[in-house]
């Protein structure tokens, strides 16, 4: 897909907001492609968001359904980032639980 300043800015803003869902988020990589690019068929988009947190890489991808050609890339970007937020929240939960267990274990030793 050709670069678009409007899309790039939207992606940057959404990527920055992801930091609030996981304190240890190390990097965010976003790839937007047209895997079905053809003159005869619909040119659907694929939005892929890769999130690196300590010890793991989380990946979200959203592909434009070929039977919904009116769905634009902005909608896919929004949907992919909402899924990324949910994934980061879920990934951050065990860390909170581990910290509480660790603190409780230390308190029991004293």
Task: Give the SSE map.
Blueprint: H1 5-17, E1 27-33, E2 46-53, E3 56-63, H2 73-109
Antiparallel strand pairs: 1-2, 2-3
Please name the defining characteristics of this protein.
110 residues, 3-stranded antiparallel β-sheet, Double Stranded RNA Binding Domain, alpha+beta
Structure description:
With 110 residues, this protein is an alpha+beta fold. The chain has one domain (5-109): Double Stranded RNA Binding Domain (2-Layer Sandwich). The chain is 45% helix and 21% strand. It has helices at 5-17, 73-109, and strands spanning 27-33, 46-53, 56-63. The chain has a three-stranded antiparallel sheet with strand order 1-2-3, covered by helices on one side. Helix 1 (5-17) packs parallel to helix 2 (73-109). The protein starts with a helix and ends with a helix. The model is unreliable at 100-104 (pLDDT under 50).
For the largest beta-sheet, the strand count, sense and barrel status come to: 3 strands, antiparallel
- DSSP helical segment count: 2
Widest beta sheet: strand line-up = 1-2-3
Multimeric state of these chains?
single chain
* CATH classification, class level: Alpha Beta
The termini sit apart by 60 Å
**Estimated helix fraction:** 40-55%
Structural class by helix and strand composition = alpha+beta
- CATH homologous superfamily - what is it? Ribosome hibernation promotion factor-like
Instruction: Based on the coordinates given, report the CATH architecture.
Output: 2-Layer Sandwich
Compute the gyration radius: what is it?
A: 18 Å
Average pLDDT level:
81
Q: Please, how many domains? A: 1
């Amino acid at each position: 897909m050709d670069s678009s300043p409007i899309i790039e800015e939207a992606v940057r803003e959404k990527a920055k907001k992801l930091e609030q869902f996981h304190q240890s988020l190390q990097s965010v990589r976003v790839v937007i492609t047209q895997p079905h690019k053809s003159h005869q068929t619909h040119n659907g988009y694929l939005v892929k968001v890769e999130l690196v947190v300590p010890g793991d890489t989380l990946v979200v991808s959203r592909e434009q359904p070929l039977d919904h050609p009116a769905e634009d890339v902005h909608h896919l970007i929004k949907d992919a980032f909402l899924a990324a937020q949910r994934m980061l929240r879920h990934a951050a939960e065990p860390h909170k639980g581990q910290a509480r267990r660790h603190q409780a274990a230390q308190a029991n030793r004293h």
